[in-house]
Every structure is written in C-alpha cells, then in structure tokens.
Amino acid sequence: MTLADTRTVIETRMSVPGKSVLEHNEILGLDSALRYINKTLVNKDPLTVYDILAIHKRVLGHVDPIEAGSFRQNQVFVGDHIPPLASDVVYLMEEFVEWLQSKSFLQLHPVKQAAITHYKLVYIHSFVDGNGRTARLLMNLLLMKNGYPPVIIRKQDRSIYFNALQLANEGDIRPFIRYIAHCTKCTLNVYLHGLEYGAKCLMALELKNQERGDMIPL
C-alpha cells in the first residue's frame, strides 16, 4: 500500500479498493502495536518477555487472533535458516530479555543495540508469523528510548535487508549492523530536512508579519 492508502486505513478504518483483507489487517495491527509502544513501553524499564508478547499480540491481532501474543509450538523453517526448537523458545526469550539489561548490551552504541536486538529476535523466530514486524518494532522502541526517530526500512530495500540477515545467519552480523546504521542515518536526514523546511516557513511567515506590523505570539 502507498502512504496515502495506509493513512486512509488508519484514520478512517475504510477499505482501499484493490487491496486484500490481509493487507488491511496488517496495517491495523501495526498501528495498534505502535500506539501501545508509544503509550506504554517508551518510558518503561526493564522490558520483559510479557512486553514482547504484548507487542506481538497487537501486530497479529487482526490477522490471526489465535496465534497473536503466543510463542510457536512447532518447528518452523525460514529459507535456509532453521530456527531453534519450539521447546527452547521460552528459555531463549528469557535469556534474550536478560541480555537487554546486561552490561555488555548497555555499553553498545544505541544503533548497534537496536540492530543486534532485531537480529536476535528474528533468529529465535519466536512466533508462527509476525516475527519481522515484531523485531522491527522492538528495534525502533530501543531507538526511541535513546532519542532516535523510528527507522524506516524502505520496501525497495527488502533484498538488501534480507541479504544482510542471511549473512548474519552465516556468522557475520556486521553487514546487518551497517545496514541498520545506514537506515538510521537516512531517517535522521528525512527528519532534519523536515525541521529545516519548517523553520524556513516559520521565518518567512515571521518576516511577512513584521512587514505588515503584526506580531507572532511566543
């Protein structure tokens, strides 16, 4: 869907012609998860397994209410990657949230924290569906906690994203970290450009009002 289509679905809850029910429900799920993150988790520490399950419950809530918010019970396969056994998922997720509070994690640069967190969650592949969306949301939550805007991973860059994940699965996570750092830089540039444009508009308006003898209240 386009940005305009997404806005229509979120703001009006009306369907967009030519788009599937699944596409609509995925957007509604992401919107619900983002609202939950902004309202509940941005200022919450430490993050728990329950918090990750709560994110996933909202991500998948409109798509698959039965699996939403639950760890997988069966073995799954993701291309050439064979995730851990389902019986190990609970233990691995508990270990994962402990790592989020560890000294080794907290000493990392925030962007590196976010990238490795993203990869670890995708690697464990805790859910039947919605793993990538949940991992990207958790990555952006960590970035927002450190004062960064949510990172935009462009649809046209999907092949780069998946190739970097594949390299990480093969033992070299550096390309994935570099890719997330690149996305972070691009997103920051978008935000800064918007701020610069807004400042120029405000300055132009102020000059115009000064010429007319008006004042802008502070």
From TrEMBL:
InterPro entries: Fido, Fido-like_dom_sf, Fido_containing
Keyword Repeat among UniProt keywords: yes
Binding site for ATP: 78-81, 129-136, 169
SUPFAM superfamilies: Fic-like
Single GO molecular function: ATP binding
Topology versus the membrane: Single-pass membrane protein
Pfam entry (one): Fic
Alphabetized PROSITE patterns for the sequence: FIDO
Subcellular localization: Membrane
GO cellular component term of the entry, any: membrane
Principal location listed in the UniProt entry: membrane
UniProt-annotated glycosylation sites, renumbered to this chain: 38
Keywords, ordered alphabetically: ATP-binding, Membrane, Nucleotide-binding, Nucleotidyltransferase, Repeat, TPR repeat, Transferase, Transmembrane, Transmembrane helix
Domain of life: Eukaryota
Domain Fido: 47-182
Active site location: 125
Keyword field contains Membrane: yes
The protein's name in its UniProt record: Protein adenylyltransferase Fic
Organism from which the protein derives: Nephila pilipes (Giant wood spider)
Lineage: Eukaryota, Metazoa, Ecdysozoa, Arthropoda, Chelicerata
Encoding gene per record: Fic
